[in-house]
Amino acid sequence: MAKAKKIQPDGWKTTKKERRNYIIGDFGRQLEGYIVTALMSTFLIFQGINLTAIAGVMLAVKIIDAFDDVIFGFLVDRIHITKVRAFEKFTGEGKYLPWYRLTFAFFPVFTALFFCMPMGMSNQAKLVWFVVFYLLYDLTYTMVEVPMNSMIVTLTDNLDERNSLLQTKAILSGMGTILVGMVWTVSISEYIGFSIKSVALVSSVIFFFLMLPLAKGVREHNTVLANVDPEENQKYTFKDMWNCVKTNKYLMILLLGTVITSCLATGGAVGLLVSYYHFGSSLILAIPITISIIPVLIAQMQTKKLCSKFGKLKVFLVTGLIGGFIQLSMYFVGPVFSVCCTLLVLQAPFGNMSNVAKTFFLPDTIEYTRYKTGKDCSGICNSISSFVTKLTTSVSSSLGLFILGLSNYIPVQAESFEDIAAAGIVQPQQALDVMWIIYALIPLVGVLLGVAVMFFYKLKDADVALMAKCNAGEITREECEAQLSNKY
User: Could you give the CA distance from residue 424 to residue 277 in angstroms, rounded to a whole number?
Assistant: First the structure.
């Protein structure tokens, strides 16, 4: 008997192949960026660079990068790159996808070069290397992430389809970072001893090929903003860009919550050190991660359904608070592995569900701004979001390294934890206590404050759905205004 062909959901615009290519491409992009997030702090600590110096340089680099992000976001919105004769053969059709096709290959190249810092260089030369290649990594990160994330608006105007794509992306990214992170941790552990550089180089090659299908097999279906003056829509100046940013008050609330939570997410900077020095092995914290994989996957797969029933804001707030209070218990228990393992397993589903729900907010704020201003502004909104994500990741790493540098932590030059084990250096108790604060207490404060900020987010899901239909031309502006629950 022939197997029944799955019917395309009503109102969905993308094909199954397009959704698959988009999700796989984004998966490769997410993991490519995660190499630096996961390994940079440990890599720099192994290089033996002064921790307080690298923390200061990292923040200075982010200030420079702020200008790159804003300028690129403006250019993506303003310039239809398909009309530039020099690029038309390479870019294909669309609004944001052509930018991705033109730039995505640079990202893995400069990520790999960042980790090629020679061990034998002086500290000053290492700082220069860090500045140059971190800026190039950051710039290419923006050039890929902005069109990638902006594309969610132009792929379809159907909110159910968007949220389905966002949830699948978040689940795949969450599972991928867990599994890939474990592979990296095992590879550089004292039991195997691969260098961080070799791990980063091999990973970058793999992630390039994951990003490739998006460039070749996806089409944008919602590139025209309807119910606006066509001539006005063609004009897009810095003043228009500023007006879009100023109008998007809900994005500002979302980003403020992100800034607080992510800046204080210092645990990642010392996670491997905590595992090694507190629990005796760089691999031991992989145990709660492994145990929680199935519960986390189940929780993530239910997020869209719960958001449809209760609203994405309620799901985000409730799961975020539950996860935060479980982490509070872990801090006060202290580094007792059996208890910490249990609490980490309990916290993981709630934390991951909150993260998935949070991905649904950004396209909503962009849809609202397009409706209010009549301008295609996905590029600038996503570039600001990209900048905030990268800035806060750097700030959390800088803060973690800076605080650890203020303790009496003993630095060790090494390529992997195998070298650390061979050196046999025991860290003082004060350094161990500071590590625990960086790992368990500071991130907890960030989670609770970030959730508190989102209580001020008042953009309703049903109203966003109406705005999306208006922006796509499915209903008129008058029909939309008549059905909105609030005066926005």
Answer: 11
For residue 11, pLDDT over 90 is answered with no
The pLDDT, as a whole number, for residue 216 is 83
* 263-310 residue pLDDT tens: 999 998 888 899 999 998 988 988 998 999 999 999 989 999 999 999
Backbone angles phi, psi at 3, to 5 degrees: -75, 130
Alpha helix positions (H), 374-441: 378-406, 417-423, 429-436
Which tens digit of pLDDT belongs to each residue from 35-59? 988 888 888 888 888 777 877 787 7
DSSP 136-186: HHHHHHHHHHHHHHHHHHHH-S-HHHHHHHHHHHHHHHHHHHHHHHHHHHH
Identity of residue 20: R
Handedness of CA 40, 43, 49, 50 (dihedral sign): positive
Q: How far apart are the first and last CA of the chain?
A: 54
Residue 175 and residue 389: Cα distance in Å, rounded? 20
Determine the Cα angle at 375 with ends 370 and 376, to 5°: 80
Half-sphere CA count of 48, side-chain side, radius 13 A: 14
Q: Where are the alpha helices (DSSP H) in 311-377?
A: 312-333, 337-359, 361-373
Which pLDDT does position 425 carry in this prediction? 83
pLDDT, one tens digit per residue, over 477-486 is 999 999 999 8
Cβ-contact 265, 400 below 8 angstroms? no
Report the distance separating Cα 11 and Cα 432, nearest Å: 56
| CB count in 10 Å sphere of residue 449 | 17
* Long-range own/partner contacts, residues 405-412 (CB < 8 A, 24 or more apart): 405/50, 405/51, 405/52, 405/55, 406/52, 406/434, 407/431, 407/433, 407/434, 407/435, 409/51, 409/434, 409/435, 411/45, 411/48, 411/51, 412/46, 412/48
Sorted by sequence, the CB contacts under 8 Å of residue 71 that are 6+ apart come out as none
What single DSSP character describes residue 92?
Answer: -
Q: Which of 351, 364, 384 is nearest to 457 (CA)?
A: 364
CA 367 to CA 254: how far, in whole Å?
14
How many C-beta neighbours within 10 Å does residue 258 have?
21
Tokens at residue 461, please? 């899901």
**Of the listed ranges 51-55, 153-157, 417-421, the one predicted with least confidence:** 51-55
Q: Are 156 and 12 in contact (CB under 8 A)?
A: yes
Under 8 Å between Cβ of 416 and 193: yes
pLDDT of residue 44: 85
Rounded to whole angstroms, the Cα distance separating 281 from 367 reads 47
d(CA 73, CA 76): 5
